[in-house]
Specification:
Blueprint lengths: L7 H22 L8 H21 L6 H27 L4 H8 L1 H18 L3 H23 L6 H7 L12 H6 L1 H22 L1 H8 L3 H5 L2 H22 L1 H4 L5 H12 L3 H18 L2 H10 L4 H29 L3 H26 L7
């Protein structure tokens, strides 16, 4: 922001444009997981991520920042997380929840450690070299992934071996899911965590300033968030395998609603830690429940295409959140005060999802 002379609203707007573009592409790119092996797609995605990190490191034009954000978002939170969750949800049936919980560990650990690493690195090598080293880190992981997935099964073979149907004892296509009323009742729940959770991390410097903390004090709380997310993710995986994702999804937003309210009103780091713990509970459930839900309620044959649509919504939310909240900050309402209103939105979205899932589960095939 300082180097390109950007306000909170301008930086949030650039982030929104790049992320919106990646959400549109995700709808098409995510469906490729129904056809191609993860080994092949994963190599392309991580290769693209290396290029994106290098581009961010060397870019000197504010007009090219949306392109850099587009590349980072598409290859990172978009396709990388999509490939992992779709593969695990498709390959495992009886232990689907636990498999998804394990697959989410990388994402959760990254959310905890990378902010601290980057903040510390800023003081020694600057943000540009940090992005360059990120490219090298991804390049080092790429051959490891290719070796580990050498004997991977094809999506078509898995579809033949593991037939898991959804509502009405059928495999739903993406157009059919898009037209179903349940999907639209879940949209606020799907968009909310990515929109305002991303905004929380996006405006972390602003939040620290508003609360009177140093930036390092703020990011030092993130490992608490990760430990909570990891433990809850494992517990959620067992709960999904025992009770089903449909029972868990409606309560997804309750903890983060309470957490955002606590964080909004507190002025101490202890209160902030409590708020972040509650935020972590939702993140842990969110790491497993939505992916399992699509397989459970709409079948696995077209899971990649269906999950791509849901991931695109998530990416869309992560675009809208920082942009919208950044503009509101520029208008005079800091993000800490905005969090109370966000908590109210979360509660409304949770209620809508609860009634929708309760109505739909009557037509769910009994395993």
């Amino acid at each position: 922001m300082a180097e390109f002379d950007l306000s909170h609203g301008a930086w949030g707007g650039i982030y929104m444009v790049g992320t919106l573009a990646s959400a549109v592409v995700m709808i098409w790119a995510g469906a490729l997981t129904d056809v191609f092996r993860v080994r092949r797609l994963g190599g392309i995605v991580l290769g693209g991520m290396i290029v994106a990190c290098l581009f961010m490191a060397v870019n000197n034009s504010v007009w090219l920042l949306p392109l850099a954000i587009f590349a980072l978002r598409l290859t990172g939170q978009g396709m990388a997380s999509h490939l992992a969750s779709v593969s695990m949800a498709r390959w495992y049936v009886a232990a689907r929840g636990r498999a998804l919980a394990l697959a989410s560990f990388g994402f959760l650990i990254g959310e905890a450690l990378l902010p601290i690493i980057f903040v510390l690195a800023l003081g020694y090598i600057g943000w540009r070299w940090s992005w360059g080293i990120s490219a090298l880190a991804v390049a080092a992981l790429l051959p490891i992934m290719l070796v580990l997935l050498k004997a991977e099964r094809t999506p078509q073979a898995v579809a033949e071996e593991n037939q898991a149907v959804g509502l009405g004892s059928k495999h739903w296509t993406r157009p059919e899911v898009f037209k179903h009323w349940l999907f639209w009742m879940l949209v606020p729940l799907l968009v909310g965590p990515s929109a305002f959770g991303t905004a929380f991390f996006f405006h972390q410097v602003h939040l620290a300033e508003v609360k009177g903390w140093s930036h390092l004090q703020m990011v030092s709380l993130f490992p608490i968030y990760t430990v909570t997310s990891t433990v809850v993710s494992l517990a959620a995986g067992f709960a999904i395998d025992r009770f089903g994702a449909g029972r868990l999804l409606p309560i997804l937003l309750i903890p983060v609603a309470l957490g955002f309210f606590v964080f909004s009103v507190t002025g101490s780091l202890v209160g902030a830690a409590i708020g972040i713990i509650l935020f972590g509970v939702t993140s842990g459930i969110n790491a497993t429940a939505p992916s399992a839900f699509w397989a459970e309620y709409f079948g696995t044959r077209h899971l990649g295409a269906i999950k791509a649509m849901a991931t695109a919504l998530m990416v869309l939310g992560s675009a809208i959140g920082p942009g919208l909240t950044g503009w509101i900050i520029d208008a005079g309402l800091n993000y800490s005060d905005q969090m109370t209103w966000v908590a109210g939105y979360y509660l409304l979205a949770a209620g809508l999802a609860f009634f929708g899932i309760r109505k739909a589960e009557q037509k769910l095939a009994v395993p």
